[in-house]
Write a structure and sequence with these properties.
Belongs to the Mrp/NBP35 ATP-binding proteins family. The chain has eleven helices and 14 strands. It is α/β, with parallel strands linked by helices. The protein binds adenosine-5'-triphosphate (ATP). Adenosine-5'-triphosphate binds near residues 132, 262, 303 and 307.
Amino acid sequence: MTVTESRLRERLRDVEDPALGIDIVSLGLVTDLRIDDGVAEITLAFNAPYATDEMEMGDRIREVAADLGLETRLSVTVPQRDSANPLPGVRNVIAVSSGKGGVGKTTVATNLAAGLADEGARVGLLDGDIYGPNVPKMIGIDGEPGMTDDGSLVPPEAYGVKVISMAFLTRDGDDPAVLRGPMVDKILIRLIEDVEWGRLDYLVVDLPPGTGDAQLTLVQTLPVAGSVVVTTPEDVALDDVRKGIEMFRNHDTPVLGIAENMSAYHCPDCGGEHALFGSGGGREVAETYGVPLLEEIPMNPEIRTRSDDGAPVVCWDTDASEPFEALVESVANRVGAVNRAAVAGIDPDDPDPDDLSTPASYGGLENEAGTDSTTDPDGTSAEADPDISVDGDASSAETTNADERDTEDDSDGAEPSLGGLDVSDRG
Ligand SMILES: Nc1ncnc2c1ncn2[C@@H]1O[C@H](COP(=O)(O)OP(=O)(O)OP(=O)(O)O)[C@@H](O)[C@H]1O
Protein backbone atom coordinates (compact mmCIF):
# COMPACT_ATOMS: atom_id res chain seq x y z
CA MET A 1 0.00 0.00 0.00
CA THR A 2 1.32 3.43 -0.89
CA VAL A 3 2.07 5.58 2.12
CA THR A 4 0.63 9.08 1.76
CA GLU A 5 2.33 12.17 3.08
CA SER A 6 -0.60 12.88 5.38
CA ARG A 7 -0.30 9.41 6.90
CA LEU A 8 3.39 9.89 7.56
CA ARG A 9 2.67 13.32 9.02
CA GLU A 10 0.10 11.84 11.38
CA ARG A 11 2.54 9.14 12.46
CA LEU A 12 5.20 11.77 13.17
CA ARG A 13 2.92 13.01 15.94
CA ASP A 14 4.30 10.04 17.88
CA VAL A 15 7.66 11.82 18.05
CA GLU A 16 7.67 13.99 21.16
CA ASP A 17 10.11 16.80 21.76
CA PRO A 18 11.85 15.65 24.97
CA ALA A 19 12.45 19.19 26.25
CA LEU A 20 9.08 20.69 25.39
CA GLY A 21 6.90 17.63 25.93
CA ILE A 22 4.82 18.27 22.77
CA ASP A 23 4.94 16.37 19.49
CA ILE A 24 7.06 17.73 16.66
CA VAL A 25 4.18 18.20 14.21
CA SER A 26 2.11 20.29 16.62
CA LEU A 27 5.20 22.34 17.40
CA GLY A 28 5.58 23.15 13.69
CA LEU A 29 9.06 21.62 13.60
CA VAL A 30 8.37 19.57 10.47
CA THR A 31 8.59 22.36 7.94
CA ASP A 32 8.47 20.20 4.84
CA LEU A 33 7.63 16.61 4.12
CA ARG A 34 7.40 14.74 0.85
CA ILE A 35 7.64 11.16 -0.22
CA ASP A 36 9.46 10.36 -3.38
CA ASP A 37 10.05 6.84 -4.62
CA GLY A 38 9.94 5.25 -1.16
CA VAL A 39 12.08 7.96 0.43
CA ALA A 40 10.62 10.35 3.02
CA GLU A 41 12.28 13.72 2.61
CA ILE A 42 11.69 15.60 5.85
CA THR A 43 12.85 19.10 6.67
CA LEU A 44 13.07 20.07 10.32
CA ALA A 45 13.33 23.40 12.11
CA PHE A 46 16.22 22.11 14.22
CA ASN A 47 19.03 24.51 14.93
CA ALA A 48 21.27 23.08 17.62
CA PRO A 49 23.93 20.96 15.91
CA TYR A 50 25.11 17.99 17.99
CA ALA A 51 22.40 18.48 20.61
CA THR A 52 21.57 14.95 21.73
CA ASP A 53 17.83 15.71 21.95
CA GLU A 54 17.73 16.68 18.27
CA MET A 55 19.82 13.69 17.24
CA GLU A 56 17.47 11.39 19.17
CA MET A 57 14.40 12.97 17.58
CA GLY A 58 16.08 12.37 14.20
CA ASP A 59 16.46 8.70 15.11
CA ARG A 60 12.80 8.48 16.21
CA ILE A 61 11.67 10.06 12.93
CA ARG A 62 13.64 7.45 11.00
CA GLU A 63 12.06 4.67 13.06
CA VAL A 64 8.56 5.98 12.36
CA ALA A 65 9.29 6.19 8.63
CA ALA A 66 10.89 2.74 8.64
CA ASP A 67 7.73 1.31 10.25
CA LEU A 68 5.91 2.57 7.17
CA GLY A 69 8.50 0.99 4.91
CA LEU A 70 10.16 4.28 3.99
CA GLU A 71 13.75 5.34 3.87
CA THR A 72 14.47 8.76 5.34
CA ARG A 73 16.34 11.79 4.19
CA LEU A 74 16.52 14.61 6.76
CA SER A 75 17.42 18.23 6.23
CA VAL A 76 17.15 21.32 8.37
CA THR A 77 16.02 24.89 7.91
CA VAL A 78 17.72 27.63 9.85
CA PRO A 79 15.49 30.45 11.01
CA GLN A 80 16.77 33.95 10.40
CA ARG A 81 16.77 35.68 13.75
CA ASP A 82 16.91 39.24 12.62
CA SER A 83 17.47 41.01 9.31
CA ALA A 84 20.05 43.29 10.95
CA ASN A 85 22.06 40.33 12.19
CA PRO A 86 25.76 41.26 11.93
CA LEU A 87 26.73 37.58 11.95
CA PRO A 88 24.50 35.84 9.41
CA GLY A 89 26.82 32.83 9.13
CA VAL A 90 26.59 32.09 12.85
CA ARG A 91 23.71 29.87 13.88
CA ASN A 92 23.82 30.30 17.65
CA VAL A 93 25.52 32.87 19.84
CA ILE A 94 25.90 31.68 23.43
CA ALA A 95 26.84 34.38 25.96
CA VAL A 96 28.67 33.19 29.07
CA SER A 97 28.25 35.67 31.88
CA SER A 98 28.81 36.06 35.59
CA GLY A 99 27.73 38.56 38.18
CA LYS A 100 31.25 38.99 39.49
CA GLY A 101 34.82 38.13 38.57
CA GLY A 102 36.77 35.04 39.50
CA VAL A 103 33.90 32.56 39.53
CA GLY A 104 35.21 30.56 36.56
CA LYS A 105 33.35 32.21 33.69
CA THR A 106 36.30 32.01 31.28
CA THR A 107 36.96 28.41 32.32
CA VAL A 108 33.35 27.56 31.53
CA ALA A 109 33.33 29.49 28.22
CA THR A 110 36.57 27.89 27.04
CA ASN A 111 35.55 24.36 27.96
CA LEU A 112 32.09 24.85 26.49
CA ALA A 113 33.58 25.96 23.16
CA ALA A 114 36.23 23.22 23.09
CA GLY A 115 33.67 20.59 24.13
CA LEU A 116 31.22 21.58 21.39
CA ALA A 117 34.04 21.47 18.83
CA ASP A 118 35.06 18.08 20.18
CA GLU A 119 31.54 16.84 19.41
CA GLY A 120 31.99 17.94 15.80
CA ALA A 121 30.41 21.39 15.79
CA ARG A 122 31.92 24.43 14.09
CA VAL A 123 32.72 26.75 16.94
CA GLY A 124 34.09 30.22 17.55
CA LEU A 125 35.05 31.75 20.88
CA LEU A 126 34.94 35.50 21.35
CA ASP A 127 36.80 36.76 24.37
CA GLY A 128 34.79 39.86 25.21
CA ASP A 129 36.30 40.19 28.66
CA ILE A 130 38.07 43.45 27.96
CA TYR A 131 39.58 43.87 31.36
CA GLY A 132 40.83 40.32 31.80
CA PRO A 133 41.14 38.61 28.41
CA ASN A 134 42.38 35.17 29.45
CA VAL A 135 40.87 33.02 26.71
CA PRO A 136 44.00 32.68 24.50
CA LYS A 137 46.01 31.52 27.50
CA MET A 138 43.38 29.03 28.63
CA ILE A 139 42.96 27.49 25.18
CA GLY A 140 46.64 27.57 24.33
CA ILE A 141 46.85 30.14 21.55
CA ASP A 142 50.16 31.88 21.00
CA GLY A 143 49.56 33.12 17.48
CA GLU A 144 48.07 36.35 16.30
CA PRO A 145 45.00 36.71 14.12
CA GLY A 146 45.65 37.02 10.42
CA MET A 147 44.30 39.89 8.34
CA THR A 148 42.39 39.78 5.06
CA ASP A 149 42.99 42.32 2.26
CA ASP A 150 39.95 44.27 3.40
CA GLY A 151 41.20 44.41 6.99
CA SER A 152 39.06 41.69 8.60
CA LEU A 153 40.64 39.60 11.32
CA VAL A 154 41.17 35.89 10.67
CA PRO A 155 40.91 34.05 13.98
CA PRO A 156 43.64 31.61 14.99
CA GLU A 157 42.43 28.16 16.02
CA ALA A 158 43.06 25.75 18.86
CA TYR A 159 41.18 22.57 19.76
CA GLY A 160 39.04 23.13 16.67
CA VAL A 161 37.87 26.51 18.00
CA LYS A 162 38.36 29.83 16.20
CA VAL A 163 39.38 32.39 18.79
CA ILE A 164 39.27 36.17 18.83
CA SER A 165 40.29 38.03 21.95
CA MET A 166 40.73 41.50 23.23
CA ALA A 167 44.19 40.26 24.19
CA PHE A 168 45.15 40.25 20.49
CA LEU A 169 44.37 43.94 20.22
CA THR A 170 45.97 45.19 23.41
CA ARG A 171 49.33 43.51 23.30
CA ASP A 172 51.22 46.68 22.56
CA GLY A 173 51.19 47.81 26.11
CA ASP A 174 47.69 49.26 26.21
CA ASP A 175 46.21 48.90 29.61
CA PRO A 176 42.62 47.95 28.86
CA ALA A 177 41.62 49.20 32.30
CA VAL A 178 42.12 52.79 31.12
CA LEU A 179 40.03 52.45 27.97
CA ARG A 180 37.02 54.72 28.01
CA GLY A 181 33.50 53.48 27.44
CA PRO A 182 33.06 54.57 23.80
CA MET A 183 36.46 53.10 22.93
CA VAL A 184 35.49 49.84 24.55
CA ASP A 185 32.27 49.77 22.55
CA LYS A 186 34.16 50.42 19.32
CA ILE A 187 36.65 47.66 20.00
CA LEU A 188 33.93 45.20 20.94
CA ILE A 189 31.98 45.95 17.79
CA ARG A 190 35.13 45.45 15.71
CA LEU A 191 35.69 42.13 17.47
CA ILE A 192 32.18 41.11 16.51
CA GLU A 193 31.80 42.48 13.01
CA ASP A 194 35.27 42.58 11.47
CA VAL A 195 36.11 38.93 11.92
CA GLU A 196 36.10 36.21 9.30
CA TRP A 197 34.21 33.70 11.37
CA GLY A 198 32.97 31.77 8.35
CA ARG A 199 30.04 29.51 9.12
CA LEU A 200 29.69 28.56 12.74
CA ASP A 201 27.23 26.35 14.56
CA TYR A 202 28.04 28.09 17.83
CA LEU A 203 29.82 31.29 18.78
CA VAL A 204 30.58 31.27 22.50
CA VAL A 205 31.11 34.74 23.94
CA ASP A 206 32.99 35.19 27.20
CA LEU A 207 31.40 38.37 28.54
CA PRO A 208 33.10 40.65 31.05
CA PRO A 209 31.85 40.01 34.61
CA GLY A 210 28.99 42.15 35.87
CA THR A 211 26.20 44.03 34.18
CA GLY A 212 27.86 47.17 32.83
CA ASP A 213 28.01 48.93 29.48
CA ALA A 214 30.27 46.40 27.77
CA GLN A 215 27.85 43.59 28.52
CA LEU A 216 24.95 45.65 27.24
CA THR A 217 26.82 46.49 24.02
CA LEU A 218 27.44 42.82 23.39
CA VAL A 219 23.90 41.74 24.18
CA GLN A 220 22.45 44.51 22.02
CA THR A 221 24.83 43.99 19.07
CA LEU A 222 24.80 40.22 18.93
CA PRO A 223 21.80 38.03 18.17
CA VAL A 224 22.26 36.03 21.37
CA ALA A 225 20.47 32.66 21.37
CA GLY A 226 20.80 32.53 25.14
CA SER A 227 23.08 33.08 28.09
CA VAL A 228 24.79 30.71 30.47
CA VAL A 229 25.11 32.35 33.88
CA VAL A 230 28.10 31.14 35.88
CA THR A 231 28.17 31.43 39.64
CA THR A 232 29.76 29.94 42.72
CA PRO A 233 27.36 28.76 45.41
CA GLU A 234 28.12 31.63 47.77
CA ASP A 235 25.67 34.42 48.49
CA VAL A 236 27.56 37.42 47.14
CA ALA A 237 27.97 35.76 43.78
CA LEU A 238 24.31 34.80 43.83
CA ASP A 239 23.11 38.37 44.44
CA ASP A 240 25.10 39.43 41.41
CA VAL A 241 23.67 36.53 39.45
CA ARG A 242 20.15 37.80 40.05
CA LYS A 243 21.10 41.17 38.54
CA GLY A 244 22.63 39.39 35.55
CA ILE A 245 19.52 37.30 34.92
CA GLU A 246 17.37 40.40 35.10
CA MET A 247 19.64 42.21 32.62
CA PHE A 248 19.22 39.41 30.07
CA ARG A 249 15.50 39.19 30.61
CA ASN A 250 15.14 42.96 30.21
CA HIS A 251 16.81 42.59 26.81
CA ASP A 252 14.72 39.63 25.70
CA THR A 253 17.68 37.30 25.82
CA PRO A 254 16.74 33.80 26.99
CA VAL A 255 18.64 32.51 30.01
CA LEU A 256 19.83 29.03 29.08
CA GLY A 257 20.49 28.26 32.71
CA ILE A 258 22.88 28.39 35.63
CA ALA A 259 26.31 26.74 35.72
CA GLU A 260 27.36 26.47 39.34
CA ASN A 261 31.15 26.34 39.55
CA MET A 262 33.41 25.37 42.46
CA SER A 263 30.41 23.55 43.91
CA ALA A 264 32.29 21.25 46.25
CA TYR A 265 35.78 19.94 46.66
CA HIS A 266 36.26 16.21 46.64
CA CYS A 267 39.26 15.67 48.91
CA PRO A 268 41.53 12.95 47.51
CA ASP A 269 43.12 12.43 50.97
CA CYS A 270 40.10 12.07 53.25
CA GLY A 271 37.60 11.13 50.51
CA GLY A 272 35.12 13.71 51.83
CA GLU A 273 33.19 16.43 50.00
CA HIS A 274 33.88 19.96 51.22
CA ALA A 275 31.55 22.77 50.24
CA LEU A 276 34.15 25.55 50.33
CA PHE A 277 31.82 28.16 48.88
CA GLY A 278 28.59 26.90 50.43
CA SER A 279 26.18 24.62 48.68
CA GLY A 280 22.90 24.62 46.83
CA GLY A 281 22.99 28.29 45.82
CA GLY A 282 22.95 27.65 42.08
CA ARG A 283 19.94 25.35 42.40
CA GLU A 284 18.14 27.92 44.54
CA VAL A 285 18.61 30.73 42.06
CA ALA A 286 17.68 28.43 39.16
CA GLU A 287 14.44 27.51 40.93
CA THR A 288 13.69 31.12 41.81
CA TYR A 289 13.96 32.20 38.19
CA GLY A 290 12.47 29.03 36.71
CA VAL A 291 15.55 28.22 34.61
CA PRO A 292 17.56 24.99 34.48
CA LEU A 293 20.58 24.28 36.65
CA LEU A 294 22.80 23.22 33.76
CA GLU A 295 25.56 21.64 35.81
CA GLU A 296 27.36 21.72 39.14
CA ILE A 297 31.09 21.76 38.50
CA PRO A 298 33.18 20.76 41.51
CA MET A 299 36.35 22.47 42.59
CA ASN A 300 39.16 20.38 41.17
CA PRO A 301 42.82 21.42 40.98
CA GLU A 302 43.16 19.65 37.63
CA ILE A 303 40.74 22.16 36.11
CA ARG A 304 43.10 24.97 37.05
CA THR A 305 46.31 23.21 36.03
CA ARG A 306 44.91 22.25 32.62
CA SER A 307 43.74 25.84 32.12
CA ASP A 308 47.15 27.13 33.10
CA ASP A 309 48.67 24.79 30.52
CA GLY A 310 46.32 26.06 27.82
CA ALA A 311 44.62 22.66 27.52
CA PRO A 312 40.87 22.78 28.24
CA VAL A 313 40.10 19.93 30.60
CA VAL A 314 36.99 18.91 28.61
CA CYS A 315 39.30 17.56 25.90
CA TRP A 316 40.97 15.13 28.30
CA ASP A 317 39.37 11.96 29.44
CA THR A 318 39.56 12.36 33.22
CA ASP A 319 37.19 12.71 36.16
CA ALA A 320 37.64 16.46 35.95
CA SER A 321 36.35 16.55 32.36
CA GLU A 322 33.03 14.85 33.13
CA PRO A 323 31.10 17.84 34.48
CA PHE A 324 32.15 19.89 31.47
CA GLU A 325 31.06 17.14 29.07
CA ALA A 326 27.69 17.14 30.84
CA LEU A 327 27.57 20.93 30.63
CA VAL A 328 28.23 20.85 26.87
CA GLU A 329 25.34 18.42 26.42
CA SER A 330 22.92 20.37 28.56
CA VAL A 331 23.80 23.70 26.94
CA ALA A 332 23.40 22.34 23.38
CA ASN A 333 20.09 20.74 24.34
CA ARG A 334 18.89 23.92 25.94
CA VAL A 335 19.88 26.04 22.89
CA GLY A 336 17.86 23.58 20.83
CA ALA A 337 14.87 23.79 23.17
CA VAL A 338 14.91 27.60 23.19
CA ASN A 339 15.14 27.70 19.38
CA ARG A 340 12.37 25.14 18.90
CA ALA A 341 10.16 26.92 21.43
CA ALA A 342 10.66 30.14 19.43
CA VAL A 343 9.54 28.35 16.26
CA ALA A 344 6.42 27.15 18.06
CA GLY A 345 5.84 30.50 19.75
CA ILE A 346 5.86 29.03 23.25
CA ASP A 347 7.79 29.69 26.44
CA PRO A 348 10.65 27.15 26.73
CA ASP A 349 10.45 27.37 30.53
CA ASP A 350 6.70 26.76 30.58
CA PRO A 351 5.74 25.00 27.36
CA ASP A 352 1.97 25.04 27.17
CA PRO A 353 0.29 23.43 24.13
CA ASP A 354 -2.50 26.02 24.39
CA ASP A 355 0.03 28.72 23.52
CA LEU A 356 1.14 27.15 20.25
CA SER A 357 1.20 29.82 17.58
CA THR A 358 1.99 27.52 14.73
CA PRO A 359 -0.82 25.60 13.11
CA ALA A 360 -0.20 21.88 12.82
CA SER A 361 -0.43 22.25 9.07
CA TYR A 362 2.56 24.54 9.17
CA GLY A 363 5.04 24.56 6.34
CA GLY A 364 2.74 23.31 3.66
CA LEU A 365 2.20 19.98 5.35
CA GLU A 366 -1.49 20.17 4.63
CA ASN A 367 -0.59 20.08 1.00
CA GLU A 368 -0.75 16.42 0.12
CA ALA A 369 1.40 16.86 -2.94
CA GLY A 370 4.01 18.47 -0.74
CA THR A 371 4.66 21.22 -3.21
CA ASP A 372 4.35 24.10 -0.80
CA SER A 373 7.43 23.25 1.13
CA THR A 374 9.91 26.05 1.09
CA THR A 375 8.69 27.96 4.09
CA ASP A 376 10.72 27.98 7.24
CA PRO A 377 9.79 29.38 10.64
CA ASP A 378 10.41 32.93 9.55
CA GLY A 379 9.32 32.47 6.03
CA THR A 380 12.71 31.91 4.50
CA SER A 381 14.43 28.75 3.50
CA ALA A 382 17.90 28.55 4.95
CA GLU A 383 19.18 26.71 1.95
CA ALA A 384 17.89 29.43 -0.33
CA ASP A 385 18.96 32.27 1.89
CA PRO A 386 21.98 34.09 0.51
CA ASP A 387 22.86 35.25 4.00
CA ILE A 388 23.28 31.73 5.20
CA SER A 389 25.15 30.25 2.28
CA VAL A 390 28.73 31.35 2.26
CA ASP A 391 31.40 31.69 -0.33
CA GLY A 392 34.51 29.60 -0.83
CA ASP A 393 35.96 30.95 2.38
CA ALA A 394 33.48 28.83 4.22
CA SER A 395 35.80 25.89 3.88
CA SER A 396 37.96 27.60 6.46
CA ALA A 397 35.08 27.07 8.86
CA GLU A 398 35.82 23.37 8.82
CA THR A 399 37.48 22.15 11.97
CA THR A 400 39.59 19.09 12.48
CA ASN A 401 36.39 17.25 13.26
CA ALA A 402 34.95 17.77 9.79
CA ASP A 403 35.14 14.07 9.00
CA GLU A 404 32.68 13.38 11.80
CA ARG A 405 30.08 15.63 10.28
CA ASP A 406 27.02 14.67 8.41
CA THR A 407 27.24 13.71 4.82
CA GLU A 408 24.93 16.44 3.53
CA ASP A 409 27.11 19.27 4.65
CA ASP A 410 28.25 20.54 1.29
CA SER A 411 31.90 21.34 0.98
CA ASP A 412 30.99 24.65 -0.61
CA GLY A 413 29.02 25.54 2.49
CA ALA A 414 25.70 25.83 0.69
CA GLU A 415 23.87 23.53 3.11
CA PRO A 416 23.56 24.20 6.81
CA SER A 417 25.25 21.57 8.94
CA LEU A 418 22.93 18.86 10.13
CA GLY A 419 25.02 18.62 13.25
CA GLY A 420 24.99 14.97 14.16
CA LEU A 421 21.65 14.20 12.55
CA ASP A 422 22.85 11.16 10.72
CA VAL A 423 21.35 11.74 7.31
CA SER A 424 22.22 8.40 5.80
CA ASP A 425 19.21 6.41 4.71
CA ARG A 426 18.55 3.68 7.13
CA GLY A 427 15.06 2.88 5.85
N1 LIG B 1 36.05 24.25 39.17
C1 LIG B 1 37.28 24.74 39.35
N2 LIG B 1 38.19 24.10 40.12
C2 LIG B 1 39.44 24.61 40.30
N3 LIG B 1 39.86 25.75 39.77
C3 LIG B 1 38.99 26.45 39.01
C4 LIG B 1 37.67 25.97 38.75
N4 LIG B 1 37.04 26.86 37.95
C5 LIG B 1 37.94 27.84 37.70
N5 LIG B 1 39.09 27.59 38.34
C6 LIG B 1 40.30 28.46 38.39
O1 LIG B 1 39.87 29.68 39.00
C7 LIG B 1 40.56 30.78 38.42
C8 LIG B 1 39.52 31.81 37.94
O2 LIG B 1 38.82 31.22 36.87
P1 LIG B 1 38.37 32.07 35.60
O3 LIG B 1 39.50 32.92 35.11
O4 LIG B 1 37.72 31.16 34.67
O5 LIG B 1 37.31 33.01 36.29
P2 LIG B 1 36.52 34.25 35.66
O6 LIG B 1 35.19 34.25 36.29
O7 LIG B 1 36.58 34.21 34.20
O8 LIG B 1 37.37 35.44 36.19
P3 LIG B 1 37.47 36.94 35.59
O9 LIG B 1 36.23 37.23 34.84
O10 LIG B 1 37.60 37.76 36.83
O11 LIG B 1 38.68 36.94 34.73
C9 LIG B 1 41.42 30.20 37.32
O12 LIG B 1 42.73 30.01 37.84
C10 LIG B 1 40.78 28.86 37.02
O13 LIG B 1 41.71 27.91 36.51
